[in-house]
Here is the input.
Amino acid sequence: MSASTLTPILLQSISTQLHSLSSPLFHFPTSRFSFNRKLKHPISSKPASILTPHAALSDPFVLQIAETFEDSLSSSTTPSPLQKLRDSSSESLLSLSWPTRKDEPFRFTDTSFIKSSEIQPITNPPQDSDFSGISLDTQLPYLTIIDGYIADSLSGLSGLPDGVFVGSLSKLPSDGMVKRVAEFVSNFEGDLFWSLNGVGAPDMVVVYVPEGCRVDTHLHLRYCSMKGSDFGSNKLPVSNPRVLVLVEKGGEVGIVEEFVGEDGNKCYWTNSVTEFIIGEGASVNHSYIQTQSLGAANIKWTSVRQDSGSTYKLVEFSSGGKLSRHNLHVQQVGPDTVTELSTLHLSINDQTQDLHSSLVLDHPRGYTNQLHKCIVAHPHGQAVFDGNVKVNRCAQQTDAGQLTRSLLLVPQATVNVKPNLQIIADDVKCSHGAAISDLELDQLFYFQARGIDQVTARKALVFSFGAEVIERIPVASLREKAKSHISELLDPTIENSIT
Amino acid sequence: MAMAHCYTCSISSNFFSNPKFHSNNSPPFPKLFTLSAIRLPQFRSNSLAVDSTTSYPLEKDDKKLLLQVNDLTAVIAESQQTILNGVNLTVYEGEVHAIMGKNGSGKSTLSKVLVGHPDYEVTGGTMTFKGQNLLEMDPEERSLSGIFMSFQSPVAIPGVSNADFLNMAYNARQRKLGLPELGPIEFFSHVYSKLDLVNMKMDFLNRNVNEGFSGGERKRNEILQLAVLGADLAILDEIDSGLDIDALQDVAKAVNGLLTSNNSVLMITHYQRLLEYIKPAYIHIMRYTTLSFEVP
Here is the structure.
């Protein structure tokens, strides 16, 4: 039995490679690069930069950012996996250029706001005295990451089972674990932002769940941004948080990633990367909640590697940022995997919410289900979705479903969606769908016919649209928080749209 | 001819003053024909043509005039196609009326026009309810003033629970009446007592509005809403379609239980069997021609 659906558009959906990395021209004789041509910091353990002639093909702007990142890092000894990451990232950066609207993955996503700002890496770890403004309201074991640096004084990790490690790479308790982590570092090629994070990450947070260990609580990773510039100052402090979650065979853990900004319109750029390595039969429940400041750029990579019989569930709620882009890559490395992705994006202001997801199935009997929803309620608001599912030749008996639904509440609100399935296997069950609409008039009328006024009815309907995703957040307190956040954001918008 | 059954027809005095009465030509658009129904009449085709624009007294046998529709014409908003052409209808309080007629004759349209559905535009005539001009009222105002329409096929509203929906509607009514609103818990106990009326279980309230409901459950849900919200005029649009005999009896029992000497029911139906359970005082027939049958 085969029931496969193919959009014509997917044939054009393969993203244009900026440069062919496999070209022999780009073979570098040495594995270590530095962008620091000025040789101002001879203390660096790295050899002084010798940029090969090929570098002439590089994007000077990208090199310049990489250089400032490199300058910003402290010269103290770097654990070897992190050094390996920096080296490989530096190497890929040489052939990457800043994306433009002509590049398919950024066709609808304008990153020029970052490019035109003065990018300033955040060099100093935050001081304890700065933390007064940060509220703690979580019942879960938590780790706070401020501007890319772990804040130990704002972390409480009690309640985790023995053998579970959460903390900086440099504090890993055994060499065996360091080796294990090193196996998975820089195994994946993302895009420019992935590599920039690799060069600029001051530290790597490691979450390690040993074999057979079931963590019955969720671990709350709170990413805070303290160094923001004022709106209009054209300065963009940037942080590069990096997290690696390694769950060994049969392990189970819930991870909550919450990105919060300071109040107001502070400008900063969070360029984060989180990698999940999910072992055989292991299970990860991932919640990603993003409520950054409305002047911020939030670019996030999530890369997931799923071994046989493993489960990965993601629930995302994203409403903050001037530009918020989530790149999600799920790679199947064994059969019988379960992958469930649910996303709710809210563009209530002049902002862009973007999800680029790609699921690659290379093994039989995988099950994937993706639900993407977005609400745009501003004439300059925009939502972008590019959801790619590749069912390759060996991925027989895959069951893949994908649905995207968008709600455009005001005239001129924009959504660009491109759900696409690429199916090569011939014994699969795949479905996908896309719907873009205002609220259903029949539903609105049903409310009115029962005496409920339009404002209340619209609120209830918009809220219920988002509730389908919000209800899937596994932690009750976060669910409630997300709900009240949505009401706060939507209530005034809906009231204005009626009057 | 069916006229023989017209014993106490309320409008018989107008029969002969109506010039159209003598016309045997089929009218090109839907019309309402009224028969009294002390005993169920045996209808024959094109039996009676009554089209009265005479005004009615505000009270009849101490009953107040509830709804008066005069010479109502309406079009489909999108295509501007005429779908009601000169409909007259008068309902006093405490009366049960039934409208019958073939598919596409405009029965449901009339009920939707009465509650202000945006798919239709009224192009002429008047509609007054309790002395208020319905044409000037929004759908929610019409509902709050006491008109309830049970939908022929109510929409599902995923993500909104039945209890929340009813609570919102109930509180809107309380606000209108200047009475205190009920919180979710108080409301739950209020609505719980009404569940027996429609023979439904508790979990009915926790399910999303009409989502995954069977045909029978949807109809029961409409009547539950009527029971919770109350109404001076309940318009039941094909409340019997898709119901098995038990469900029909349940629904009819619930409706009869809600009837008092002050409120009225306007039923729209294809089937005589409903009329055996809810006894109407008047039966109106909506007639149409081929032309109006083409209305989508």
